[in-house]
Amino acid sequence: MMKLIASSIVICTLFGCATQHGLDRKDLQGAYELGRRYEKGLGVKEDDRKAFQWYEKAANLGSAEAMWSIANLYGTGKLGGIDMMRTCAWAVRAGKYATDDKVRSEVAVAIPQLRAMLGKRFPSCEKQAGDWSPAS
Questions:
Q1: In terms of CB atoms within 10 Å, which end of the chain has fewer, N or C?
Q2: Spatial CB neighbours of 124, under 8 Å, sequence gap ≥ 6
Q3: What pTM did the predictor assign?
């Protein structure tokens, strides 16, 4: 459900509501949903930078889906040029924190491909991923 209220986008999900002007710090699903809507242009103007900002908020709250979405933004060059190290780091993080089969299976396919692409740089990716954890 989406409503326009006082020039703020409000997105209500089964897990709560999020607004551009006041996201509840614990609403990771709301932050993820706003990121998805900005990435896909669902009810808002498509904006990959804003999508990244909302995905990052959700990732910092522990959303593996958001981490995987960030990996895909970097991997497809939607944030500038393609950045395989950042793609890899976010994919490894998503795999570490994933609790659902969809993200786990997609990451399981991507990691061997990233390992092959990055070669000797892959351990650096794993270190970069390991040096980060959700803020929770």
A1: N
A2: 85, 118
A3: 0.82
What does the angle CA 27 – CA 46 – CA 104 come to, to the nearest 5 degrees? 50
Bridge partners for 4 per DSSP: 9
5-17: b or e for each residue (b if 16 or more CB lie within 10 Å)? eeeebbbeeeeeb
Environment class of 107 (CB within 10 Å of its CB; exposed 0-12, middle 13-18, buried 19+): buried
What is the model's pLDDT at position 1? 38
CA dist 70 and 55 (Å) reads 7
Specify the fold of 2-130: 1.25.40
Q: Where are the domains of the chain?
A: 2-130
List average pLDDT for each run of 10 residues in the chain, which is 136 residues long: 39 47 68 96 96 96 97 96 96 96 96 97 96 86
Matching residue, tokens 């999020």: 18
